[in-house]
């Protein structure tokens, strides 16, 4: 028993030292790279990409002896089209252009660090958008920190407040904070087996106080303000602190519920805010989404109506530490997503 206790204490000390060292290193690195870690907007014309794919497939289906003729005719058509456009410009006749469908990809992590890129993408769109332009957000997230996802939802609301019609497409998962973002949209499209909902709040914390007491280790914590700290990792938790912690969780949940109900007033908010999640088919029946489908189907459906442009803010990678941190975060996110889905299935 003493061995286990000593080993546990050693483990706590070891983890604490590693965390302190890691924090110092990360602060030092981020301070050095802060000015260098600039990014840029990457613009991709998806309409042109899809047209090129379509032409490549058409060409692949044509017999070899007919390919030369097909390419020749295609070249003639391009020249003819360009010539017509030039003549119209000379006459002062401007050909009416199609509105733009801006496509944003948001794959959120637990700490919602992607909000910074989203903010820049939204600001870029709002600086150039015109009448009848629309937004498609391909969203994937199982949620995370409340303040981070609250800010992400606010970024989407900036576009809605400016009168832009927003569609959110959920191909895999938009749960908890992810759904907080999705519900801001005018229209939500979700794949039949995508995961939607989980309108609830969760918080948990381990407590080592009894272990420390058994080894005659005291922990002192001083606060100014009765509820500055309700539950602690090392100190002794009180029933009053637990009740206050639960009260704060309930307040956060109430804010979440009210926000969803404001964005989607037709849903029965009490029946969908239990923390449960639903697959696309059931989510449609409950009013959590508006349509079953995938983001690819949506884009192909509106190709003739819109000029489709993907916009993403790409951060420049710093040194090897940035690459390792980013890779570790992606692996951890995938692992936690699988763990969350499996836990939900069992609970």
TrEMBL record:
Major site of localization recorded for this protein: membrane
Listed Gene3D superfamilies: 2-enoyl-CoA Hydratase, Chain A, domain 1, 6.20.330.10
One Gene Ontology term from the biological process aspect of the record: proteolysis
Domain Peptidase S49: 160-304
InterPro entries named in the record: ClpP/crotonase-like_dom_sf, Peptidase_S49, Peptidase_S49_N_proteobac, S49_SppA_C
GO terms for MF: serine-type endopeptidase activity
Highest taxon, organism lineage: Bacteria
Residue ranges crossing the lipid bilayer per the database entry: 6-29
Keywords, alphabetical: Cell membrane, Hydrolase, Membrane, Protease, Serine protease, Transmembrane, Transmembrane helix
GO cellular component terms attached to this protein's record: plasma membrane
CDD domains assigned to the protein according to its UniProt record, in alphabetical order: S49_Sppa_N_C
Domain Peptidase S49 N-terminal proteobacteria: residue ranges: 2-156
Subcellular location, record wording: Cell membrane
Any Pfam family hit: Peptidase_S49
UniProt-recorded name of the protein: Protease SohB
Species assigned in the record: Candidatus Pantoea edessiphila
Upper lineage: Bacteria, Pseudomonadati, Pseudomonadota, Gammaproteobacteria, Enterobacterales
């Amino acid at each position: 028993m003493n061995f286990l206790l000593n080993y546990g204490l050693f483990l706590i000390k070891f983890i604490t030292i590693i965390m302190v060292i890691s924090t110092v290193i990360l602060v030092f690195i981020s301070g050095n790279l802060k000015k260098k870690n600039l990014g840029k907007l990457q613009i991709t014309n998806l309409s042109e990409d899809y047209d090129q794919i379509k032409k490549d497939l058409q060409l692949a289906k044509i017999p070899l002896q007919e390919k030369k003729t097909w390419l020749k005719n295609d070249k003639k058509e391009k020249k003819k089209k360009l010539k017509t456009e030039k003549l119209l410009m000379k006459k002062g006749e401007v050909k009416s252009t199609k509105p733009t469908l801006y496509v944003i990809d948001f794959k959120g992590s637990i700490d919602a660090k992607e909000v910074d890129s989203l903010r820049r993408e939204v600001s870029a769109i709002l600086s150039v958008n015109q009448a009848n332009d629309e937004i498609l957000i391909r969203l994937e997230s199982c949620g995370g920190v409340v303040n981070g996802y609250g800010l992400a939802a606010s970024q989407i609301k900036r576009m809605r407040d400016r009168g832009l019609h927003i569609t959110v497409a959920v191909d895999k998962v938009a749960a908890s904070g992810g759904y907080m973002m999705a519900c801001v949209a005018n229209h939500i499209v979700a794949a039949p087996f995508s995961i939607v909902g989980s309108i609830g709040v969760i918080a948990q914390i381990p407590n080592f106080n009894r272990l420390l007491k058994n080894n005659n280790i005291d922990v002192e914590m001083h606060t100014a303000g009765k509820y500055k700290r309700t539950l602690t990792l090392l100190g002794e938790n009180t029933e009053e602190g637990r009740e206050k912690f639960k009260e704060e969780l309930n307040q956060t949940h109430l804010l979440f519920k009210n926000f969803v109900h404001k964005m989607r007033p037709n849903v029965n908010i009490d029946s969908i805010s239990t923390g449960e999640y639903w697959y696309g088919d059931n989510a449609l029946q409950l009013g959590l989404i508006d349509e079953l489908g995938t983001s690819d189907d949506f884009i192909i459906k509106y190709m003739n109506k819109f000029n489709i442009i993907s916009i993403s803010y790409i951060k420049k990678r710093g040194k090897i530490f940035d690459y390792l941190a980013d890779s570790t975060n992606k692996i951890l996110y995938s692992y936690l997503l699988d763990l969350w889905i499996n836990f939900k299935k069992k609970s």
